[in-house]
Design brief:
It holds the Pfam family Pyridoxal_deC. One of its GO terms (biological process) is amino acid metabolic process. It comes from Kalanchoe fedtschenkoi. GO terms for molecular function: carboxy-lyase activity; pyridoxal phosphate binding. The protein is built from 12 helices and 11 strands. The chain is globular. The chain has 388 residues and is of the alpha/beta class. β2 (81-86), α4 (92-100) and β3 form a beta-alpha-beta unit. The protein has 2 domains: 1-272, 3-Layer(aba) Sandwich (Aspartate Aminotransferase, domain 2), CATH 3.40.640; 276-386, Aspartate Aminotransferase, domain 1 (Alpha-Beta Complex), CATH 3.90.1150.10.
Amino acid sequence: MLSACFNIVGFSWITSPAATELEMIVLDWFAKMLKLPDFFLSTGQGGGVIQGTASEAVLVVLLAARDIFLRKLGKGFLEKLVVYASDQTHSALQKACQIAGIHPENVKALKTDSSTNYGLSPDLLSKEICHDIANGLVPFFACASVGTTSSTAIDPILELANVTKSYNIWLHVDSAYAGSACVCPEYRHHIDGVEEVDSFNMNAHKWFLTNFDCSLLWVKDRNALIQSLSTNPEFLKNKASQSKSVLDYKDWQIPLGRRFRSLKLWLVLRLYGVENLQAYIRNHIELAIHFEELVSQDMRFEIVAPRTFALVCFRLLLPCGFEDRTNDVNGDLLQAVNSTGKIFISHTVLSGTYVMRFAVGAPLTEERHIDAAWKLIQDQASSLLEKL
């Protein structure tokens, strides 16, 4: 409410010094909570900025990386630029590539499977890069995911960085969902290797009690963003900006205008504090563990992918002779559960298997809600199995 009613348009420092400087402060606070490297701080060569969404975050760093290569090689090389990610990566990367003019055939979605818990294999990435270079292409950008949408799969950041660094490829880490959990020391290891990447993104508006929109992006080199995205028309020129002594966040994003989003994050951090925020995350994960245990106790169901955070991927098994209908029946079960209007679960497909996804993330969820949700799922499953 405060952020909206102030109606600040803090696109440059001079339009609202408070909005700009508070953003620098809260992004530094959050970086320290995540134990990010010093170059991601405002006092380093990079810094943090609040984007609207993770989709915007990946787009701006993709544009920065693209322009670094095109300045070096020439604009004619656009058709040769190649992007890499796993096939579990959010579709935001595909859209960013479309906007940035990357040819569709040069956007490589590398296959993952259960052998790596749907994480991207560094060996596969290295092999694909070598193949593309041999064919005259120019690898320039890779996106690693920590907590994919489908199953919260985790790409091995450090191992992937060892590959990308040897080819000077920009490595971006999309941790839109799971980044929040990494403020807890016991989950921080999931972003080990972040000191070797070029940019890192997580959404405070997903799992960190901050109203939409508030997507946090840190970059290793702020000049890469500024060179790609800055404009300087006469009507925006001012002594503060021209002195290079202040940050103008308009040059770190797609639009010119921007909201006072840092105020929302400041209030969350000040009202709750680190320990309460950690407890909030841990509680959701404990509730997800409870749901996972309930599923495991019913032999009619199976857990399909490892539960790492607060998402449980599971499915209903069918009796002998009906296995070929498993995907369809699970789809029917999801529809039946959601049609009651009491809970809402979503689905994905992993290695051709239809999977239901139970995500714990609402602030008021308690164990009794988990128990009631599981009973509802069991009852609907029993009803479907009786009709086979």
